[in-house]
Amino acid sequence: MDNIKLLIDFGSTYTKVAAIDLDKVAIAATARVPSTVDTDITLGLEKALEEISAQTGIGGPEKKNSLACSSAAGGLRMVCTGFVPELTSKAASHAALGAGAKVIGCYSYKLTSREISEIENTAPDILLLCGGTDGGDDAVIIHNAKMLARTGEKIGNIIVAGNKSAYDEIDAAFKNSQKRVIYTKNVMPEIGVLDTAPCNKEIRDIFINNIIRAKGISRARDIVGEVIMPTPSAVLEAAKLLAEGCEGEPGFGELMVVDPGGATTDVHSIAGGNPSSGSVAMVNTLPEPYVKRTVEGNLGLKHNIDSLSEFTRGKKLPPDFTAACRSFHEGRLPRTPAEIACHELLSRVAVEVAVNQHAGRIEKIYGPTGEMLLQHGKDLTGIKTVIGTGGPVIFAADPRRILEGVLFQPENPLILKPKNPRLLLDAQYILYAVGLLSQAEPKKALQLAKKYLEQI
């Protein structure tokens, strides 16, 4: 038997399995079957493994030695709270997104009773409680802790990552609450400093140890190995590896990954983003993370297609556009030429708008000395590599046309998008597998990605 590693992604739509021959650093087989997470996740998994076994002959030992990620059952859903919107609340969102979560709510200042009700109704998997620099304001985070301590079982997991001076009072507030409360370092220990890594680790630990069981995903453990991270986190790990390289294998340098999907469009940038022109001043109130992930929840090709289609206003639409959108929302995949044209237009718009939101922008102001240029967010104009992944790009008839939505637009010169990158396609749908494999075999994971990413 060859040295085969199985890598699995439990998605909301499909369960995907990649069998990687580690000796040859090559894909031995792949399988993609409809997800059965709503009934019994093992049914879809067993079917996918049967396909893999038929192609490779793998047996029980290889299955138990596998690694998996998951975005099934809604993925990892988080609510963030902080003090000032552009500071600790924003830092909390960066921490959650960087851990592969979907931020379904973000609140600032003292929580009101109405906001507490809203949060309870969303029933987040984890609530991230932040606020105040270390030694700074503690009134807001203590108030919010006391409000959250009175909530019911819909808010069960809380990570505290705020002003450490408040932790004793927060601990007292939660003492008899029956909630799982984890304390970690402040995501913004002082003004202008972002420290999300310790919080990222706690989020991932709760995901592995508690949340996958609550979502019924842990049943797969009887068949395969561990589910070690959310799928977006696996893609982010792959992006970091591709950018930075590892010992004995160089990376690509600063890059972006764009991932349109049925519910959201994710954008990752692994880049410093400093101004490329000496005449531009950076004005971010909070440092932009070098590893940055944004999620546009209104840009989905299935679940949020109504809001996505709003962005097509002013564009020339293919025939029967409205009917096609309705069918995509109901789960139909594009088949006819008209449907394919509609889907590609929507995919291109999703990529374009999501990258517009992710990239930094220039603001012109005028003072006593004349015009000044201020940069908000990251300057990504010098990015040399952009990778497209996700079904709407991978399975498109013209993936390049969709991915060109990331490019700098002369008609919008103040948005700092890549000007002349090469465009790569994750044609084999393996970025999640690269991210999983990177945890144990980074050099082979990077070589695998380089072998199968296709320039378009």
What do you see in this structure?
With 456 residues, the protein is an alpha/beta fold. It is 35% helix and 22% strand. The chain contains 15 helices and 19 strands. The protein has helices at 41-56, 60-64, 85-98, 113-122, 139-149, 167-173, 197-214, 231-244, 305-310, 321-329, 337-358, 391-394, 399-403, 431-437, 442-452; strands at residues 4-10, 14-21, 26-34, 67-70, 77-81, 102-107, 126-129, 157-160, 180-183, 226-230, 255-260, 265-270, 280-282, 291-296, 361-367, 370-376, 385-388, 422-425, 454-455. Helix 8 (231-244) packs across helix 14 (431-437) and helix 10 crosses helix 11 (337-358).
Summary?
The chain has 456 residues and is α/β, with parallel strands linked by helices.
- Taking all Cα atoms into account, the compactness measure Rg is 22 Å
Instruction: Based on Cα principal axes, name the global outline.
Output: globular
> Order of strands side by side in the largest beta sheet?
14-12-11-17-18-19
Task: Report mean pLDDT, rounded to a whole number.
Answer: 91
Helix content: 25-40%
> How much beta, percentage-wise?
15-25%
Distance between the termini: 35 Å
**Strand elements, count:** 19
Main pleated-sheet profile: 6 strands, mixed
Number of helices: 15
The structural class is alpha/beta
* Uncertain segments: none
